[in-house]
Amino acid sequence: METKQLKFSYRDDSSIPTFPDDGPISVMDAHCGLCAKGAAWIARNDREEEFRIVPLQSELGEALAVHYGLDPSNPLSWLYLENGVAYTSLDALIRVGLRLGGVWNILVVLRILPRSVQDAMYGVVARNRYKFFGRADLCSVQNSEVRKRLLL
């Protein structure tokens, strides 16, 4: 899934609450076990402490999802904002890996897969995320590194 919005377009959308967007923003399903693990992965590897994590079920998360054409009640992708540009699905994962650097640069190898294969793989995981990874509550996670990155 590709977004077709302009850089920082959410700033001109009056339905989106003002938020600090000076670093990368990851909008994740706060009820998904995989997303909670993803938030912990980001927090553990974000040496610059620049990432912010927005629960999809928050006012800000819902508004950003709608702005970028995602259904906040049935998210089949996560949303990643970097320098005002939105990315979704595996493209978001690859960009997070590149931003974190080090060994995570290896995620760029996923780009060799045709877009249709990437979308199909991501779709299977997204549709079955609760079944495969269970449920979690990202907003009440005990990990202090994750908690300090949350924008609620």
The description of the largest β-sheet is: 4 strands, mixed
How many strand units?
Answer: 4
The strands making up the biggest β-sheet line up spatially as 2-1-3-4
Total helical elements: 6
Average pLDDT rating: 92
Q: What is the alpha-carbon Rg in Å?
A: 14 Å
- Beta-strand portion reads 5-15%
What's the helix-strand series?
EHEHEEHHHH
Shape: globular
- Structure classification: alpha+beta
Tell me the count of domains.
1
Straight-line distance between termini = 26 Å
- Fraction of residues in helices? 25-40%
Low-confidence stretches: none
Task: Give a brief outline of the structure.
The protein is of the alpha+beta class and 152 residues long.
Notes on the structure:
There is one protein chain. The chain is of the alpha+beta class. The chain has one domain (9-147). The chain is 37% helix and 11% strand. The chain is built from six helices and four strands, in the order E-H-E-H-E-E-H-H-H-H. It has a four-stranded mixed beta sheet, with helices on both faces. Strand 1, helix 1 and strand 2 (52-55) form a beta-alpha-beta unit. The two termini are 26 Å apart. The mean pLDDT is 92.
